[in-house]
Design goal:
Number of domains: 3
Number of strands: 24
GO molecular function: zinc ion binding
GO cellular component, one term: cytoplasm
Protein name: Nuclear factor 7, ovary-like
Shape: elongated
Strand content: 15-25%
Strand order of the largest sheet: 12-13-24-15-20-21-22
Distance between the termini: 93 Å
Number of helices: 12
Organism: Fundulus heteroclitus
CATH architecture of the largest domain: Sandwich
CATH superfamily of the largest domain: SPRY domain
CATH class of the largest domain: Mainly Beta
Structural class: alpha+beta
InterPro entries: B30.2/SPRY (IPR001870), B30.2/SPRY_sf (IPR043136), Butyrophylin_SPRY (IPR003879), ConA-like_dom_sf (IPR013320), E3_ubiq-ligase_TRIM/RNF (IPR051051), PRY (IPR006574), SPRY_dom (IPR003877), TRIM8/14/16/25/29/45/65_CC (IPR058030)
């Protein structure tokens, strides 16, 4: 049989003035009971000795005596509530609430009562299902924070949610301060938010799967690159045997180039994988939050958590356009023609004398006195880019005034010289050497007959040697760093793809009679597409 304590409700022991459990309950002649301080302050405020409930007026202040029975029962009720609140969180399983009335070991609660402020197992819930008075109590899914379900202002159940103020409401709140707002039941709001969280969860699942597929794609691409590298090395070994000395000298160089390129591709691919894995971990953190929030059955707890839940958009990249280059080692066709054009074809792959040319490295810096007014030079004289506003520069005879050109301070009038320029990230550029007497004013036609030995890039993929007539240069890849080699006595200016150690184009058979100066043009910005700088970089031989 349920004890009297088990059937106590807060309504039975609440003062109708402060709406809290009685503190020093006193009865007045009409029979109603209030807290001693509450009724005293009520009379002092209204200057009349009336009953707040039945409105009976007493013409003299009634004598107030503590209602011992009510006081004792109120204290017992407070003890029950306090003991219930001090229970440690015990769980029979994840997310389980235990019955407050069971002796140890406690059974799992099946319902919580918002009137009794307790949770009950099936056995102890029976009075709420069979007794008429208890059947009127509000039962919800079992939770541990029952006091949090009661309106602090009106003492009623929090049954509604205001979408305007984003807060829980009782019926009195709804009908008073929020009567013009959009108010829905907790169930309606929970359903909407669960649907939203479900969509967010689907989005994270999709993002994770996309990145997993991209990792598989990268891994397959790396495998293909390794296979291509193996085939290239095998082809190289077979063909090189037929041309002995020159090919034998090239074998070591080509092997290193292929392995270096493979290492670069593998590093790039592994970096992508690492980044994608990091994004998956980041998205998984968000997904775990969404999973945790989505698995809460109780609408109130769910909404309470959802209100404090912030799901930041993951800081991730759009990987849809990523493609790992696997076509780096298709040299078989070149090898088939190698016996007829050994020197020229090998130089297209890698020049076995490239490192020797790097030994003639010279220090080169931009000459600000020659720079077009739109060009921006770095303080160290190693970088040049095109600005958006012309600078007020003195119009010196050596300054270019119409084309976006700049020369180096250092010139060559004998011997061999070599320098390197980073062109990575650019869609247009001009590089080479020019005679000291080149025209600096007006338009300039780049060709050897005008004292210019240059190459240029246009549209990000069209590489041309300005040989007069121009020569379109078919290259396996657009270089990111260009090496320029000048042999003054031999009349030679050669351009190299530094990373591939391969020749891009040689100007040969010329007779130089003037001092030659390195020539540069970063070209127009093209709406920011070509904003990267040309950078004179230190020469490293990696020996």
């Amino acid at each position: 049989m349920a004890s009297a304590t088990n059937l106590m409700t807060e309504d039975d022991f609440c003062c109708s003035i402060c709406l809290d459990v009685f503190s020093k309950p006193v009865s007045i002649p009409c029979g109603h009971t209030f807290c001693h301080d509450c009724i005293t302050k009520h009379w002092e405020k209204n200057y009349v000795f009336d009953c707040p409930l039945c409105k009976e007026i007493h013409y003299s202040k009634p004598m107030l005596r503590v209602n011992i029975f009510i006081a004792d029962m109120a204290e017992k009720f407070k003890s029950v509530v306090k003991r219930k609140a001090s229970f440690p969180l015990q769980e029979a399983g994840i997310g389980k609430v235990l019955c407050n009335l069971c002796a140890e070991p406690k059974s799992t609660a099946v319902k919580s009562c918002l009137v009794c402020f307790m949770s009950f197992c099936e056995i102890h819930l029976e009075p709420h299902l069979t007794l008429l008075k208890l059947q009127q109590h509000k039962l919800i899914q079992p939770v541990n924070d029952l006091l949090n379900r009661i309106c602090k202002t009106h003492g009623d159940f929090l049954e509604f949610f205001c979408r305007v103020d984003q807060m829980f409401l009782c019926l009195s709140c709804k009908n008073q301060d929020h009567k013009t707002h959009k108010v829905v039941t907790l169930k309606e709001e929970a359903k909407i938010r669960k649907t939203h969280l479900g969509k967010e969860k689907e989005n994270t699942d999709e993002m994770i799967e996309t990145r997993r597929q991209k990792i598989l794609h990268i891994q397959r691409s790396l495998d293909e690159s390794r296979n291509n590298a193996d085939e290239a090395l095998s082809c190289k070994n077979n063909v090189m045997a037929a041309v002995e000395d020159y090919v034998r000298k090239s074998q070591t160089e080509l092997t290193e180039v292929i392995n270096t390129k493979l290492q670069t591709i593998e590093k790039e691919g592994n970096d992508f994988i690492t980044e994608l894995d990091a994004e998956i971990m980041q998205i998984n953190v968000i997904k775990e939050k969404l999973d945790k929030a989505s698995f809460i059955d109780d609408d109130f707890t769910f909404l309470e958590n959802a209100l404090s839940l912030t799901v930041p958009s993951p800081k991730v990249k759009d990987w849809s356009y990523l493609k790992v280059n696997t076509d780096q080692f298709q040299i078989q066709r070149t090898m088939a023609e190698l016996q007829m054009f050994v020197t020229s074809k090998i130089n297209q792959l890698c020049d076995p004398t490239f490192r020797e040319k790097q030994q003639y490295a010279v220090d080169v810096t931009f000459d600000p006195d020659t720079a077009h007014p739109l060009l921006n030079l770095s303080a160290d004289g190693k970088q040049v880019s095109t600005g958006n506003q012309s600078k007020n520069k003195e119009d010196k005879p050596q300054r270019f005034d119409q084309v976006l050109n700049v020369l180096a301070k250092e010139g060559f009038s004998s011997g061999k010289s070599y320098y390197e320029v980073q062109v990575k990230g650019k869609t247009q550029w001009d590089l080479g050497v020019v005679s000291e007497s080149i025209n600096r004013k007006g338009d300039i036609r780049l060709s050897p007959k005008n004292g210019c030995w240059t190459i240029w890039l246009r549209k990000g993929s069209e590489l041309t040697a300005n040989a007069g007539p121009a020569v379109n240069l078919p290259v396996r890849q657009i270089p990111e760093k260009v090496g320029v080699f000048v042999d003054y006595e031999q009349g030679q200016v050669s351009f190299y793809d530094v990373d591939a150690r391969a020749i891009i184009f040689p100007f040969t058979g010329y007779k130089f009679s003037e001092k030659l100066f390195p020539f540069f043009s970063p070209c127009v910005n093209d709406g920011g597409k070509n904003s990267a700088a040309l950078i004179i970089t230190p020469v490293t031989t990696n020996c």
